[in-house]
Specification:
The complex is a heterodimer.
Chain A lengths: L1 E4 L1 E4 L2 E9 L16 H25 L5 H15 L1 H14 L3 H18 L3 H4 L2 H24 L5 E5 L4 H5 L6 E6 L7 H9 L3 E3 L4 H4 L5 E5 L4 E4 L3 H22 L15 E6 L2 H9 L5 E4 L3 H4 L7 H15 L4 E4 L26 H7 L1 H14 L5 E5 L5 H21 L9 E5 L2 H5 L1 H4 L5 E4 L1 H9 L17 H17 L2 E4 L7 H9 L4 E4 L4 H10 L2 H12 L4 H13 L7
Chain B lengths: L4 E7 L8 H11 L5 E6 L2 E4 L3 H6 L7 E7 L3 H13 L6 H9 L1
Antiparallel strand pairs in B: 1-4, 2-3, 2-4
Classes of the chains: A alpha/beta, B alpha+beta.
Chain lengths: 578, 102
């Protein structure tokens, strides 16, 4: 039994056989097999050889290869593929070492190549490249068969991979794929997004995962805690089966909350919204009983596809979401990337400290054509529903004024061409820097609403990078400094009479929901699958007890003390397992 | 009646050594014969019909190889392989050019 901890990006529990997807562009890790699987793996190698030979034959007959050196390369590949001693060396290796076909092919070919590399003769040492070529050819066939297998699954599996590309996940038979675990990726990676839209658990950033999963391992993916258990023992398996059953029951119970309004026991209505990135996630918001979209991230438009998105690319995405939401509010956040992440630009030199660099609204204000393209599309979409725009990472009043001035410019352009838009479209800002939190009273005079982005606010307030393992334990929303800022922003927004929501992860963490309500928050925006759970909390509490909790927290001076108090309060409402 | 055993020693003289393309030629010719043919380079021995083993001999230009054939057509096999090595694997023009330039 092995345990790996990663970042949970989609909740739920999955227990199934592992379907390992290796990549020919990545070093294949050693993966053991059982005695009973040896014959199967040897058969796979033989089939890969036969397929590769057939492929070479086809290429050679399809086009007459005139170029002598290419003909030579093909001849070499062919002789290797037909070399019985070569094949035997690979199958013997599987037999003796009990490893997968992929690993045996990769190991033997690299052995041969390294033999060449050591020879002190350029003519010979350069030939190692030809051997790597043969390795790739064989792996392509082996992995191709695996890809076909995933398309035609007949039993439930969890997918284990170094990384998953959109082209790979597109062909999966999703009825049988019960979860994802990958070595790479983050909260907004493709794997995470697909898993959330399918409603299956996923964990990413699992270092060393590929080398500890054996072919046919049973794997538990605990998407609630970010844990992967490989080859669990009987006791763990039983424990997780019970946990999974209770979790499913809990989810069913939560489904019951979908159609009831989010109102506290003492009658105060709370607005629960979804954070989305892709148009199809808007559907999940509705399925889960969300009342609108509190944060529509638009970065995917810039990160997928080969070129900068056109106004129509933006418009199509926005109008699709507007159509789905059918009059419910949609807050579109303008582009929130750093210069280091904008793929279509080469103009900006590398930054020593990108988190404090040219990112988000700052980047937009320096790249007006890109910014105006997006604003035009948002304005055009504003006639299709309750569409609002939100500027991220506002740090100063001057930035807000500049952004609004550009918005007015774009409106004038549209007027000139007679393009309709909603001139009253609400314009809000994200409060995610200490600077904007401290000057919220001023910013509120020129904003229609605030949304507190707690993730960045915590990072900038505490000067902690949550991705840095040496300091990540210091990252906490329960720090008095963070709570002080949030409290003051809530106060300033309410004094100015403008809307306020929380859209960071705090909004959906069970222990913070009561506190935020007690601090005066009435709108929370979160990952769509979490809406029912938060609604259950809302429906189980009274504002009075939330207020009491918030007052008690305000007197405390340590993160630990606060966290314990909040946990106790939450555990009275939610099952202990959660 | 015991089978004929024939052995010769050759020196690899083409610039590329006994590497992929020449090895392919060597294996192709060896495979035409029924005899078991082995090639040794120092302490390393290879089956002359396996391109993998032949390339692993890592016989660079100037290497001395021992070719040994055992079987009914051993004489013919050694004659054919000996000729291939003697004629520098019918060196392709490009390596001839390369030599001229050098």
């Amino acid at each position: 039994m092995e345990l790996r901890k990663g970042i949970a990006v989609s909740p739920g529990i999955a227990i199934a056989r592992a379907m390992v997807i290796d990549s020919k562009d990545y070093r294949i890790p050693r993966r053991s097999i059982m005695t009973s699987q040896r014959a199967g793996e040897i058969k796979r190698v033989r089939r890969a050889f036969a397929d590769a030979i057939r492929e070479l034959d086809q290429i050679q007959t399809a086009k007459r290869i005139e170029e002598g050196s290419i003909r030579d390369i093909f001849a070499v590949h062919m002789r290797f593929l037909r070399d019985k001693r070569f094949l035997k060396r690979i199958t013997d290796y599987i037999e003796k070492e009990m490893v997968t076909a992929e690993y045996a092919v990769s190991t033997i070919l690299r052995e041969i190549a390294s033999h060449f590399e050591k020879v002190d003769d350029v003519y010979i040492s350069e030939r190692a490249a030809d051997i790597y070529d043969i390795e790739r050819r064989l792996l392509t066939h082996l992995l191709g068969k695996v890809a076909e297998e995933v398309e035609h699954l007949r039993e439930e599996v969890v997918i284990v991979a170094h990384d998953l590309a959109p082209t790979q996940t597109a062909s999966f038979n999703k009825t049988f794929v019960k979860g994802f675990a990958t070595e790479r990726g983050g909260r907004t990676s493709h794997t995470a997004i697909i898993a959330r839209s399918l409603g299956i658990p996923a964990i990413v950033a699992l270092e060393g995962l590929m080398s500890c999963v054996t072919a046919q391992s049973t794997v538990i993916i605990d998407g609630n805690r970010g844990l992967v258990v490989i080859d669990p023992d009987e006791a763990t398996l039983e424990e997780y089966r019970t946990y999974a059953r209770r979790f499913t029951e809990f989810e069913h119970e939560l489904d019951g909350f979908r159609d009831i309004p989010a109102v506290t026991r003492d009658g105060v209505p709370i607005t629960l919204l979804g954070n989305v990135e892709f148009p199809d996630e808007a559907e999940v918001v509705l399925q889960k009983g969300g009342q609108g979209i509190g944060l529509y991230r638009t970065e995917f438009l810039y990160l997928y596809g080969g070129s900068e998105p056109t106004e129509d690319d933006h418009y199509h995405a926005y109008s699709e979401v507007a159509r789905l939401m059918n009059g419910k509010p949609i807050v579109i956040r303008t582009m929130d990337l750093g210069a280091d992440k904008v793929p279509h630009t080469t103009r900006h030199p590398q930054e020593a400290n990108p988190v404090l660099g040219l990112r988000s609204i700052r980047y937009c204000l320096q790249n007006l054509p890109l910014f105006k393209t997006q604003l035009r599309a948002i304005l055009r979409a504003s006639t299709l529903g309750d569409v609002r725009v939100m500027f991220p990472l506002i740090t100063t009043m001057q930035e807000l004024r500049q952004a609004k001035m550009i918005l007015r410019d774009v409106m004038e352009d549209l007027d000139e061409y007679g393009v309709p838009y909603n001139a009253q479209m609400p314009v809000g800002i994200m409060i995610e820097t200490p600077s904007s939190a401290l000057t919220a009273g001023l910013l509120a005079l020129e904003s229609d609403f605030f949304s507190i982005g707690t993730n960045d606010l915590i990072q900038y307030t505490l000067a902690v990078d949550r991705g840095n393992e040496h300091v990540s334990t210091m990252y906490s929303g329960a720090e008095p400094a963070v709570l002080y800022l949030i409290r003051s922003v809530i106060h300033d927004a309410s004094k100015a009479g403008i809307g306020l929501s929380i859209c960071g992860e705090m909004a959906s963490e069970p222990e913070f929901v009561m506190l935020l309500l007690g601090m005066g928050v009435r709108t929370l925006s979160m990952a769509p699958p979490l809406i029912p759970e938060v609604k259950k909390i809302v429906c189980s509490v009274t504002i009075e007890e939330c207020n009491l909790l918030a007052r008690k927290v305000a007197t405390m001076d340590s993160q630990r003390q606060i966290k314990n108090l909040l946990r106790d309060a939450a555990s009275r409402i939610l099952p202990v397992e959660y | 009646m015991s089978e004929p055993v024939v052995e010769i020693e050759v020196e690899i003289q083409n610039e590329e050594g006994l590497h992929l393309r020449p090895a392919v030629q060597f294996v192709d010719i060896a495979s035409r014969f029924r005899s078991a043919i082995t090639v040794s380079h120092g302490s390393v021995q290879a089956d002359a019909k396996s391109v993998m083993e032949m390339t692993l001999l890592a016989a660079a230009c100037g290497s001395r190889l021992k070719i040994r054939a055992v079987g009914p057509d051993a004489h013919e096999a050694i004659a054919a392989l000996g000729e291939l090595v003697a004629k520098n694997f019918h060196s392709v023009p490009q390596s001839a050019d390369a030599r001229k330039k050098g």
